[in-house]
Design a protein that fits this description.
The complex is a heterodimer. Chain A is mainly α. Chain A contains 24 helices and six strands. Chain B is mainly α. Chain B has one domain: Helix Hairpins (Orthogonal Bundle), CATH 1.10.287. Chain B starts with a helix and ends in a 13-residue tail after the last helix. Classes of the chains: A mainly alpha, B mainly alpha.
Chain lengths: 643, 95
């Protein structure tokens, strides 16, 4: 195992970059702040890769099982000492998923750092941008390495904060401000569920440590001995609440509304936070607590699967209708996260039953690669045409050859065309769904066809379609720092699928073999190719067919275009019901009862003092009379009491 | 004792009814003197051999002198600012 200090350095380097650039960036560092941050994250990436290599090639293995190691821990908050005392131990937990996430987070973050050198060049708050990226990377790494659910919660909120800061980076734009507020409020609202879940789980298990919590609660039949509420055990309630937190962060239906709006942030940020890393925190959370999920009543996992598959499907449908390329990608992200979540939902625990678990994390891994690539590619396109709208694009394949090539690779990967990365992970997910829940499987199959369709709609619309507009005084495809990450990620999108993932990541730490069924993958691949062909027919050349189809679908199309009116429903609930009814009543109570009481007290004091102040007349003789009266009264009292 | 009581109440009445500050000061002196007489009288009849109360009376006379000096200073200042020594006129010190 690498030395503790090395593992500690992985998150601390981005933190150092954040502190340095945040405090001194604008004044003293200036233009070189990008280089500094990139160097810091480069070192982190190298260290993370080294840790991963050492972990997976021996240090983590014991008797053929991957251990969860805790190379560093520290008693942070001790509330009461003793055997059963409550204390919070911060620490670093290394197990297959956290090591994998370390690599993903540092790697994608490095790519985004490099890319931003070109993309954000000349930005006024350049060093602040890199400071925020450093903060995000630190908190995300902290999140995945946490050995303690409380520590994870803290990092969870930090991640939310840095997401908020980065979405609102262009704070002169009102839409960006609205988007960052929305993202923060929605995720914060979901985090309330997470916090309650933490409280319930830690109350039932008597600890906040992941390992001991899993040890206490991760036993079959543990539900029976726990208190029940409304037919569900405390464990199920806790897990459901934790899952709400995860759903908020991972933009799952119906808490997904913030993600499309979050695209107001700079595009590299979307690639890093809203595609590859932060939004999979929910998946990671469920995976982290998976041993507990698997022993709780099947209701919870069914709910997870259902939420996942609904998100996947709805997002895919919406993605087909959007015209802003970043929004298409945002919905595609939501759809893919839905895939990961329902894969966890249909998974069992241990050995081959845990296929869904492995598949989900495998998809997380590959998705991070190709989705980051898609976003960075889209960023290059936006950089080139200065617009997010599809109608301003078209025929860019000659002008942006490298972007075109890498974007195509990513599209093939996400569409699940063999042998690209997405194929392997999506097949594994579908297989897991097929084996345990047919209903989920059929929807997932349809969704994967839709995925292929909307991704290639995007691809054809950007790079083919109409003849290119003549972009005058354009600055070429982008700087080398923008092209390099595209190429590296393109390579990963091709190669990542060949990693024998189940050898490394499984629900119980024991490596297993996945069986590859050629016959099984015929259906998804055929459907995927069908989707691509449909997209080609409709969008490769400019024609009236898409409009005709949209017109014939009528209401359905409009509903999908308006994102199924979910935003409107939220607005209705918050504005009309919450503000209009409950808020109005509360406001009335506040205005007339609470304020009334306060005003009455003030009025009483004023009136009484008004009457009393007459006594102070300024006439000495009057005072003397009062004095004498007082003395006489006291004398009388004194005499009276004396007897 | 009767003289003392009479003096005391004349003083009190004077203090309350006269508007002239100098007269009020004189009333206070009357009250103090009534107290002095009381002291001496009680001493004479209750503890004939002792002279503690005489000292007390002496002290009161000294303090009354000091008090008169302060009061006259105040009165003079008041007269300078108000052109009168009528207490009814000096009623600014109110709410």
């Amino acid at each position: 195992m690498p030395a503790t200090i090395i593992i500690l350095l992985i998150p601390l380097l981005p933190l150092a970059a954040f502190v340095l650039l945040g405090l001194f960036g604008k004044k003293y560092v200036g233009k070189s702040s990008g280089i500094i941050a990139t160097l810091a994250i480069l070192v982190s990436t190298v260290l993370a890769l080294q840790t991963a290599t050492q972990y997976f090639t021996g240090a983590g293995l014991l008797n053929g099982t991957f251990q969860s190691l805790q190379p560093w821990s520290y008693d942070w908050l001790v509330f009461s000492t003793g055997q059963s005392g409550l204390s919070i131990r911060t620490g670093i937990l290394l197990d297959p998923i956290s090591v994998m996430m370390l690599v993903v987070v540092t790697f994608i973050s490095l790519m985004v750092h490099v890319y931003s050198l070109g993309y954000m060049k000349g930005e006024e708050r350049f060093s602040m941008y890199y400071a925020y990226l450093g903060l995000f990377t630190f908190s995300m790494l902290g999140l995945v390495m946490s050995s303690n659910i409380f520590q994870m919660y803290m990092c969870w909120e930090l991640v939310g904060l840095s997401s908020f800061l980065l979405i609102g980076f262009y704070y002169e734009k009102p839409s960006a401000v609205a988007a960052c507020k929305k993202a923060f409020i929605v995720t914060r609202f979901a985090d309330l569920g997470f916090l309650l879940g933490i409280l319930i789980l830690s109350n039932q298990s008597g600890t906040l440590d992941f390992n001991s919590m899993i040890e206490t609660l991760g036993k079959p039949g543990v539900c029976k001995n726990l208190p029940h509420f409304m037919g569900l055990s405390a464990l199920s309630w806790g897990l459901a609440l934790v899952f709400i937190g995860g759903a908020g962060k991972s933009a799952l239906f119906p808490l997904h509304i913030w993600l499309p709006d979050a695209m107001e942030g700079p595009t590299p940020v979307s690639a890093l936070i809203h595609a590859a890393t932060m939004v999979v925190a929910g998946v990671f959370l469920v995976a982290r607590l998976f041993p507990i999920f698997s022993v709780a009543s099947s209701n919870v996992l069914n709910m997870v699967a259902l939420v996942g598959v609904i998100s996947a499907f709805i997002a895919a449908v919406i993605a087909c209708t959007q015209t802003d390329i970043k929004r298409v990608l945002a919905y595609s992200t939501m759809s893919q996260i839905g895939f990961m979540i329902f894969a966890l939902g249909v998974s069992g625990y241990g050995g081959e039953n845990g296929l869904g678990y492995t598949a989900s994390l495998f998809h997380l891994f590959t998705h991070a690669m190709f989705k980051a690539l898609l976003f960075l590619g889209a960023g290059a396109v936006i950089h080139y045409v200065h617009s997010n709208e599809m109608k301003d694009m078209g025929g860019l394949r000659k002008q942006m050859p490298i972007t075109h090539l890498t974007f195509l690779l990513a599209c093939l990967a996400i569409a699940g065309v063999p042998p690209f990365a997405g194929f392997f992970s999506k097949e594994a997910i579908l297989l897991a769904a097929y084996e345990s829940n047919r209903f989920v499987y059929w929807i997932a199959l349809g969704t994967s066809a839709l995925t292929a369709f909307y991704m290639f709609r995007l691809y054809f619309r950007i790079f083919w379609h109409t003849e290119p507009h003549v972009h005058e005084n354009h600055h070429g495809e982008g700087t080398n720092t923008m092209k390099l990450p595209l190429l590296i990620l393109g390579l990963c999108s091709v190669a990542a699928g060949f990693i024998p993932f189940s050898h490394y990541v499984s629900s119980d730490g024991k490596p297993f073999e996945t069986h590859f069924h050629l016959a099984f993958s015929v259906a998804p691949v055929t459907l995927g190719l069908l989707g691509i062909i449909t997209a080609y027919v409709l969008y490769a050349r400019s024609n009236g067919k898409p409009d005709a189809i949209a017109g014939s679908l009528g209401a359905v199309y409009r509903a999908a275009y308006r994102k199924f009116y979910i935003d409107e429903v939220y607005l209705f609930i918050t504005k009309k019901l919450l503000f209009g009814w409950i808020g109005a009543a509360a406001a009335w109570f506040d205005k007339y009862i609470v304020d009334g009481l306060v005003n009455a007290a003030g009025w009483a004091a004023e009136t009484v003092s008004d009457k009393l102040k007459i006594i102070q007349s300024g006439r000495i003789q009057q005072y003397a009379v009062y004095f004498l009266a007082g003395v006489l009264l006291m004398a009388v009292l004194f005499i009276y009491m004396w007897h | 004792m009767f003289i003392s009581t009479a003096l005391f109440f004349i003083g009190v009445l004077g203090f309350f009814t006269r508007r002239n500050l100098v007269t009020m000061l004189m009333s206070i002196e009357l009250i103090l003197n009534s107290v002095n007489i009381n002291f001496i009288a009680f001493n004479k009849y209750l503890w004939p051999g002792k002279i503690d109360a005489v000292f007390f009376a002496l002290f009161i006379i000294a303090i009354a002198a000091a008090e008169a000096a302060v009061a006259i200073a105040i009165i003079i200042n008041l007269y300078r600012s108000h052109q009168s020594i009528d207490v009814e006129q000096a009623a600014e010190m109110k709410y």
